[in-house]
Amino acid sequence: MSKKYFYIFVCIVFVLVSGCKSDAGGQPDFDMTDYRPMAQVYKDYFYIGAAVKLGEYDSTPFYDAYPASVLESFNSFSAENGMKPDNVYSSDGSFDFTYGDRLVKYASEHGAVVRGHTLVWHYQSDNVFKEKRSKEEAREFLQKYIDTVVGHFRGKIYAWDVVNEAVGDGGQWRTDSPWYRYYGGPEYIRDAFVFAQKADPDALHFYNDYNMVNSTKRARVIKMIKDLDLISAGLDGIGIQAHWNLYWPSAAEIEKAIKAFADMGLLIHITELDIDCYNGNPSMGEIKYTSSLEKQLADRYAEIFSVFRKYSQYIDSVTFWGIGDEDSWLNYYSGGRFFDSPRNNYPLLFDRDNKPKKAFFAASAF
Ligand code: GLA
């Protein structure tokens, strides 16, 4: 090897070794004593929320699964599944508020708020759809359902995802929704807001959906709000789900989505934030949480939170879809497909040992 190449070789080794030391050499990048609950860090900006398990589908309730120090990072909670129609309504016509009551109790004892997720959805609502209904019967049922559920939690749940994902991927409406079919059109969406507004006028009422950063989808949502005159029906805000990945969407696309709805006078809640480290690819083999992925995820969260801070006058809640990586639905789902056995994903801010990740500190640093 010539002197020159030997010198380049030594430089490369030096860079690699020093890179490893700072990134993954066993030395923590952050002093854990620096841990400040995220809800505290962001108290002047927005609520920091998490979707949580409450015992449904044999899960361990979140307050038994996580240490208090982790839970202190959140001052808003959504039920991951426990308040969806299938867990609230039985086809015999009875209602069960076990999981919602559990969440409300925990939140009230810990100074946190609850987002109600969700009242009207085409999915996880099979018990609701077991009966055949004419349009008039569907309307009556919709009113009864919303009156009963929102009425039960009146004054305890400050914001509701009244309607979830009613806009189509291919056309204006999700025409395969049983609600759309009962009604023979989209008027159920307006009815739902009118009923929810009446059942608890002091709560905030949201339309929640994914892909709001996509201009075509967003245009459909905006058209829906205008055509159905949803603001006069009680719509207060838009839930931007935020199931995103390491590359998509760009900060500029996120900004456009926030601005478009804020310009309509609507509040913004980020309702289901997680970052898919497989970038929506279901066929990729299992990846490890390397130091470069750790850094990429931290940079990505830093970027996203700087956008949220920039628009915090419009955003008053940012909710993660889960607390620790172990719990995330993204271990089981990718690109429209559920897996039989999990593939480790790393989408959240706490690792599988409930330790805050580099991404946690990056999202909290400003
Ligand atoms: C949608 C729903 C959520 C949840 C996530 C994935 O975004 O709104 O309730 O089911 O999918 O877990």
TrEMBL record:
Active-site residues, Swiss-Prot/TrEMBL = E272
* Pfam families referenced in this protein's UniProt entry, alphabetically: Glyco_hydro_10
Which InterPro entries does the protein's record reference? GH (IPR017853), GH10 (IPR044846), GH10_AS (IPR031158), GH10_dom (IPR001000)
Write down the SUPFAM superfamilies for this protein, in alphabetical order: (Trans)glycosidases (SSF51445)
The Swiss-Prot or TrEMBL record describes its family as follows: Belongs to the glycosyl hydrolase 10 (cellulase F) family.
Q: Mind telling me which PANTHER family this protein's record contains? A: ENDO-1,4-BETA-XYLANASE A (PTHR31490:SF90), GLYCOSYL HYDROLASE (PTHR31490)
| Record-given protein name | Beta-xylanase
Provide the taxonomic classification: Bacteria, Pseudomonadati, Spirochaetota, Spirochaetia, Winmispirales
